[in-house]
Amino acid sequence: MRLTDILNQIYTNISLHTETWISILIGALVTLIIGYIIYKIQKKETTIHKLDHDAKLEEIKLLHQQDSEKIKVLYELIIQSQRGSIGEIEAAVLEQKIEVAAELITDQDSDHAQALKAIADKDKDEADSLLDKIAEQEHNLLGMYKLRALNECRNGFYSEAVKWYRKIVEMMPEDFTQLDSLLQALNNAGQTNEARAMAQNKLNTLDKQDNPEAVSMIILLDNISEAYCIEQNYDAAEPYTLRSYEIRKNHFGETHLEMGNAYNNIAVLYGGKGKYKESEECFLKSVAVQEADDKNGIGLIQPYSNLANLYLQQNRDQEALPLLEKAIQIISDKLGADHPYIIHPYNTLGNIYANLGRCDKALELLLKARAISDAKLGLHHPFHIEISLNLAYFYKTLGKLTQEEEVLRCLLDNKDTPTDNGSNKLDTVLFKLALNLHAQGKPDEAELYYTRALPLLRKAHPVQPDNLASTLNNLGVIYRKTGRYHEAETYFLEVDEINEKIYPQVNLQKTITKMNLGNTYIRMERWSEAEQYMQHAVMMFGEMKSVHPYHIDALHDYASILEKLGRHAEADEYKAKAEELKTKLEGHTTENTEETESSKG
Fold first, then answer.
1. Where does 385-468 show beta strands of DSSP type E?
2. To the nearest whole percent, how much of the chain has pLDDT over 90?
3. Is 387 in a helix, a strand, or coil?
4. pLDDT > 60? residue 78
């Protein structure tokens, strides 16, 4: 309603009672406030593209009447930012709108308004405190559950959000929107089996209907595909991704902007399967759709970034570089140089510069990415952990173990220490810190962090079998050196079992594990078992194409075992082989040194 219309209405009804006149005036004022909020939001950012099912949540009865209209805008924006159906770019734009809307919530507003503002600002402690206060005063469980879940999602604690979304779905079993939120939270928390089963069950129900809602089908298919992709089971994800693409095409049309998301999803899938040519074609189609329909360029950020990552997987750094620079330029121009969405391109660009040997530039970008992440998203956000791990790895490659240790300890020592909720990578942080301390010659401290990482890595197995095997192996080495042979034996046997499953061919990891078991049994004077494993190690070293110094050690150890068993002639034979191999290896090293010196000259 325009201001002139309001004045005309007031003039026409001037004879009404004073109370009625005041009510009309208040209504006009509220309308102006709402219009101002929406105007500020739209002025800050352009309207985003989103699926037509992103309906506004209607249940806001828990909000005080005097605040409901004012903070409804903020509430709906935050809800939209959590939806998996909204892409990363759209979510980035929403973040800007949320910032503007949150600024318009004043100190005079109710506890509900302040709780929403705290959620918008990702101030979890403040939000929790306000929600506890509201819970004591009111009894709207559904409203409380929604805000609780919203608060956990905004701060990346998806396992906690799952608990609240379960309660909501129990109260609203027919509400598809709430089921969608639960599925997303489950996937984000790494509980992919349950998310997939739940979505599949709902999908089976819709498949029995004559004309199931297209967007509902898309959401279920995307959730199932996402669950499989998180598990890196791309073959299982493929039929769901392609079916989602077909429904999108039929429902939206081939030129609709949403088809850019469809092509992007297929490209990511093919990239995971190593089908780089097909992946590149789909990414280019996604770019073409965005360029044809996206008026402000923001939609091009994601396909540019994803295509750059695909090139990086193929060591095509020079082709990835301009794409990332374009993405960064768009973000800087449209969203701001310190917008959270610039973090990932900075991080990736830093990796490229590191590969190109421009270490100073790489370090500058990584530090800048972490600074923006910490300021905008907080120390417990997955971006902070991802960038910090990348920075730690960068220091490690430069041989700066002290700096690597400092970065890793910061992930554990601040007040926002990650817990084993969702994708916080606590297992990886603990594992890498243990490796760092081990490399620095601090076995006691390394053992502490290996032990903390072990139960988490067991949960992650078989997704991260290498990290689990390395942890078990390194703990075994520490235990063996400190005389705890039975513990070492247990861990080495488990590593041997894992290696047999994940490595079909002979390799160094499998061989060294056999050697470690042989050495452990030597110390335990269990000679028959020592012979069995050390003989395997010697045979496996012989099958490997490259000569390794450990081969000499294995030959000497096997010779010592044979002597203990009284088989002296065989022992002398293996001692001779060890000396022969040693001479060969020293000669090979000398030749390499002479070639290097010659090339220098």
1. none
2. 28
3. helix
4. yes
